[in-house]
Structures are given as C-alpha cells and as structure tokens.
Fold this protein.
Amino acid sequence: MRAQGKRVHHEEEEESAFVSMTDMTVGFLFIMMILLAFFVSQTRDNETVPRDLYEDVKQERDDALKLAQTQSETIVRLEIELAKLREERAALVEERNQILKELKDARSQVASLSARIKTLEETLAKLLVEIVEKDAQIEELRAELERLKQVDPLEAYLARVAQVRRDVLRQLRDAIRLDFPDLLVELSEESDALRFQGEGLFASNRSNLTSQKSAIVERLSQRLDEVLPCFTIGPASIFSEDCNPGFVMIEAVQIEGHTDNQGTDVRNRTLSAERANNTFFAMTRAATRIIEHRNLKGQPVLSVAAYGPDRPVTSNDSPAGRATNRRIDLRFIMVTPQDTNGIETIRDALSSISEIQQ
C-alpha cells in the first residue's frame, strides 16, 4: 500500500513538472512577440536602420516564429500524450483500487481461515486427548479379554459338573415320562433334583407305596441304575470317557421326603422320613446293584433325608400349594473339588476303574 502511494505521488510530480515547462515556453514566446512589436514601433519611415541590424532582427523574428511553431506542435503532441497518460493513469488507478479491494477481501478471508484453523487445531487437540484415553481403555479391555480367555481350570470343571447333572436329570425325567405319562415329575428350579409332586408317589397322609406307585419307584430305580455306573466307583461301576468325558463324579443321590404344614410337626417329620425310607427300600429291592455305586469316599451314593414342612417350594395357603409341597425329591449332589488337585484325584479314581475293566 505504501509503495503504491509513493508511485502515485511520483506520477503527480512528473505531471506538474510537465505543465510548468509548457507554461514557461508559452511565456517565452509571449515575451519575444512583445519585443518584436517594440522594435517595429520604434521603426519610422523617415528613419533608416542598418541592413545588418535589420537582417539580424528579421532572422531572429523568423527563428522566433519557427520556434513558436515548433513549440506549438510540441505542445499539441505533448497534450495528446498527456491525455493518453491521464487515461492510462485513470486505468491504473482503477486497477489499483480493484487490487486494493481484492487484497482487502483476501485479508478478510485469511483472517476467517486463520480463525477456522485455530478452531480446528483446538478440536484436533481435544480429539488427540480422547484418542489417547480410548487407546488406554482399549488396552485395558484387551488385557481383561486375555485374562478372561485364560479359563480357570477349576471354574471350567465345575461348569461341566453342573451341565452333566442337568443332562442326567433330564435324561431320567424324560425316561420316566415315557414310562408313566400321567405322572407329575419336574426338574427343580436349580436343576439339581427330580421332583415328584402332589400325589405323585404317595396318597395324602400315607407313607406306604401302593402297587401302582411301587411300579413307578421300581422303574425309577432301574433307570437310575443305568446312569450311575459311569459317574461312581465301586463293584458295579463302569467308566469310560464316552459316557463321562468330563470326569465328573456323583457324591450322593438323595431321596428327600417333604410335607405340607398341615398337622403336627412330629407327624410331618415322621411322615417325610417314612416316605423317603420306603422309597429307598423299594428302589434297592428293584435294583439290588444300585447300593453298590460308591462316591469318592467309598460311601453308597443312594441316601435318604427327611425335611418335614421345612422346605416348601410354594405357599401352603391353598390346596394346590400344599399338594405341591407334599413331594419326594430325588436330588443329585455332585463331587465339587476345591482346587485342581481335587480334579486330578477324581480323574485318577475314575481312570483306575477303566484300567481294571481292561
């Protein structure tokens, strides 16, 4: 801007100098004409002028006229050139103003872009911080994932134990349902017991099995005797990885007697114990080998328990609820080791059966 201003000022000074020179030329010619007029007025007819002086004055006059003519032509030419220069100057001024306007717009755009760049840089800085934080979270999650991938052998074994128990109970339930479609038998909520509800095995307030109910117990005993050999040790045990790939053992198959809350506590406890014992004896008579299935401690897995009214599965406030609570549960209790050494102990016990059989 400063350089352009100086250039314009310099052009104006040159123009002023040109105008001053023209004025001086015109003034000089004007003075010469006055002098010629003065010489003419001094000349009289009765006076004579030396020829040499006349010739000199005439020559000076002619030279002055020629010079005036030349200067007039020069003035015209210069005026034409001056007009062109003024036109060029006007065009240059207009171009300069347009450039100044564009420069102003460009500076405004630069300022706007600079502000935008600053905003983007601040946003990028925030995103960089977030990226660093997310990377740290990802690394933590990856580490946690790797830890989770490393399955605890004990947890994996206990999960297999729970699954095997569910599968065995479902197998028994489905077999009993096929044999006795009208019998109400279900899995417990925890999938750890078969539940014979209501009048499933015993008539109300009775502990002895009728011939029809005895048939159910005998069939149940035979089905159970088909399952236990692969999950127990003892004279009747038959182990193979085909039937027990997880090396799971049964600790106890508990025949549980339960009653509703009607009647005295003594009566209910006696009734539940009698029902459990009568079921036990009926099962051992039907499948004599069932008592030979042993747990890891060498104890028979088949056992009894009596709870009276202590463990209801629903409210005793209605006849239907009380019928549900009067039941026999066949509960499967599995061997659950406390550490990996316990798992190896179970494996060794079952493997020894397999070696004897071979």
Observations:
- Strands lie at 185-187, 193-196, 250-258, 302-308, 327-334.
- The chain has two domains: 2-118, 153-357.
- The two ends are 108 Å apart (CA to CA).
